[in-house]
Specification:
Elements (H helix, E strand, L loop, with lengths): L1 E8 L3 H8 L9 H17 L3 E6 L14 E4 L3 E2 L14 E2 L2 H13 L5 E3 L6 H11 L8 E7 L9 H16 L10 E7 L16 H13 L1 H4 L4 H8 L9 H7 L4 E12 L2 E10 L3
Parallel strand pairs: 1-8, 2-7, 2-8, 3-6
Antiparallel strand pairs: 1-10, 3-7, 4-5, 9-10
Helix pairs in contact: 1-4, 3-5, 5-9
The structure holds fe (ii) ion.
Fe (ii) ion binds next to loops.
């Protein structure tokens, strides 16, 4: 197994809609899609066999009747969810059950109590990052293992817990001895955020200074950054900014020392601070 790197990205639904409806060259969208082009080239070069995509479900597969803090999709196929406007016209996501079951076993024995999900429809939280990375292919070029994190129903897990989950994922990857272990290439993707608030008096809040500082600390000082309390995310990054804790799962899967390969930040894409970062282990 080779870990080719980590990628963090917002999962703004409007970005998916822009791709689905062919608006990428429109004046509103063109600057954003120009900015993500270097990341798309990096992903194409890295060409991972498997992406572990850390995302949150937005009341598509789970509801307030059942809210797992951490869940893992172990199925062989995950269809795109209908989020109210029909399912996105994107391919089904193909899983990697052998590696997913290994991850589930390793993580649970490593004391992360994952909910095991055999059947799962994936919403924009997972499919938009795939579109950010791969545009609109007939078939996704990688297999995907979905890792869901609850950031919808209070209390979500801490940044520290997410960072430690990432480290446990790394340990699990390194102990994988499946048939394809010798040649398998893996990328870990953290999604969500950045600053945004969808309701209340501060609806539309975007805080570029906070988002930049978050990324700086994610790269260089994760031991400090992971301790940021929930209330600080709420105050500085808005009521939906807590999604950023999921980027710490990605960060934890990488070495302590990483190289920042690429970063972009763009406003506006609907009402969100839209960021993306590509990291590689410094020793690679
Ligand atoms: Fe989200």
């Amino acid at each position: 197994m080779k870990l080719v790197g980590g990628l963090g990205t917002s999962h703004v639904p409007a970005v998916g809609a822009a791709i689905d409806t062919g608006q990428q060259a429109d004046p509103y969208w063109a600057p954003y899609f120009e900015k993500i082009e270097p990341a798309r080239r990096w992903v194409a070069d890295a060409d991972p066999d498997v992406c572990i995509v850390v995302y949150n479900d937005h009341a598509s597969a789970f509801s307030l009747e059942l809210v797992p803090t951490f869940a893992i999709g172990v199925g062989s196929r995950f269809g795109p969810a209908d989020e109210g406007y029909g399912a996105r016209p994107v391919p089904d996501v193909e899983g990697h059950p052998e590696l997913a079951w290994h991850l589930a076993e390793s993580l649970i024995l490593d004391e992360f109590d994952m909910t095991i999900v055999a059947e799962l429809e994936v919403d924009h939280g997972l499919t938009v990052p795939l579109s950010v990375m791969y545009d609109q292919p007939d078939r996704w070029p990688c297999r995907v293992i979905p890792i869901c994190v609850n950031v919808v129903q209070y209390p979500p897990p801490t940044g520290k817990r997410c960072h430690e989950l990432g480290r446990a994922i790394r340990r699990a990857l390194e102990s994988y001895d499946g048939e394809d272990a010798a040649t398998l290439t893996v990328m870990v993707v953290g999604t969500g955020g950045m600053s945004h608030q969808l309701q209340g008096e501060r609806a539309g809040l975007v805080n570029p200074e906070f988002d930049a500082a978050f990324l700086d600390q994610l790269v260089a000082e994760p031991e400090q950054g992971r301790l940021r309390p929930h209330v600080e995310y709420l105050r500085e990054a808005g009521s939906e900014g807590i999604e950023l804790v999921m980027w710490y799962v990605m960060r934890g899967a990488l070495d302590d020392d990483v190289r920042e390969v690429y970063r972009q930040y763009h406003v506006p894409t609907s009402n969100t601070g839209n960021g993306l970062i590509v990291l590689e282990n410094a020793g690679d």
